[in-house]
Amino acid sequence: MPSLPEFRLETYFSRWEFGARFHLTASDAQTLPLSELLALADDDGRERWESLALGYTETRGLPALREEIARTYEHVVPEDVLCFAGAEEALYLAMRTLLAPGDHVVVLTPNYQAAETVPLEICDVTGVALRAEDDWALDVDAIEQALRPATRMVSVNFPNNPTGALPSPEAWHRLVRLCDARGITLFSDEVYRGLELDRASLPQATDLSPSALSLNVMSKAYGLPGLRIGWIACRDRSVLDRLERAKHYTTICNSAPSEVLALIALRARDRLLSRNREIVARNLPVFDEFFRGYPDLFEWAPPQGGCVCYPRYAGADGVEAMCADLVEQAGVLLLPSSIYRSELTETPQDRFRLGVGRLDPEPALAAWGAWLDQRPTVA
């Protein structure tokens, strides 16, 4: 086991996620009960569920599930899909398998911590920051300047966690072409794809490049993290062969019930994603009204995609104290910017992650507002 640093987000969640009264920093869309998911099943899905045997499953994933996953892409067939126990296993094994000492990686920041810390334990890593002053825009020029002869991978996350940023189609296509021209693997975390409101979803990386890896999962846009089903799609099957052999040392195979439930969900994906987009769309005016009530304390913008965003806190006590006091005194959980600090780039110190994909945020916002109103002035 490599010597990895503390996973700050998970440590913070271990303390607060299930103890706080209100979870306002959730990164997933609203989930649904098992009964409601099963009600979406077609005849084949229900038969698979009712006759399910609890034996080992195929390492690459249930063939019917891989077939349904492939249908979410333009140029992918089931043989181009490898399933994992969530997105974290997929990310971890991809970095551990495809990178070696002497390689170089470019990683966008801020990011999901493992996207930075796992490759840092293997090889040299350069960070390229999404800058708040540029509306978190993708700077392809900065990525190109960071490339070296030893660069083997560029790792990105769009829609971005925690900022909710989504690059322009022009910048996205340019990045894919740049990686292809240099023989660099593009690792694209696409777990929030499908929750865009005002913009179309970007083409998935593996549809644009035969060497790119597209990471996805049932946890975020679909709102089913309890299934622990993720996958990598890549049209370079030699890469998937290597990842399959690595998976033999971790989970070996996925949970049989989870695979069938994921199959049911993906066959109903249009309804699930439409439901979750409606929740986000319904919530945004609620959050907008809340922040309008505190113009001296907060600057906020809704996510361009996904269900998380990264507002600014301007109070004199600072965002770390605000988040700590808020959860301890009012039971409202947010993630302060220290969770997203990077070893590679400067990152904002006055931000916090906000989740906008859960039902009925009003009680949490009321508790937050009451807590703000009873404090001494800190702006």
TrEMBL record:
This protein's source sits in the domain of life called Bacteria
Q: Which InterPro entries match?
A: Aminotransferase_I/II_large, PyrdxlP-dep_Trfase, PyrdxlP-dep_Trfase_major, PyrdxlP-dep_Trfase_small
Tell me the CDD domains matching this sequence. AAT_like
Entry keywords, A to Z:
Aminotransferase, Transferase
Q: Which Pfam families match?
A: Aminotran_1_2
Coiled-coil intervals: none
Q: Which GO terms describe its molecular function?
A: pyridoxal phosphate binding; transaminase activity
Domain Aminotransferase class I/classII large spans what residues? 54-356
Annotated protein name in UniProt: Aminotransferase class I and II
The species this protein was found in:
Kribbella flavida (strain DSM 17836 / JCM 10339 / NBRC 14399)
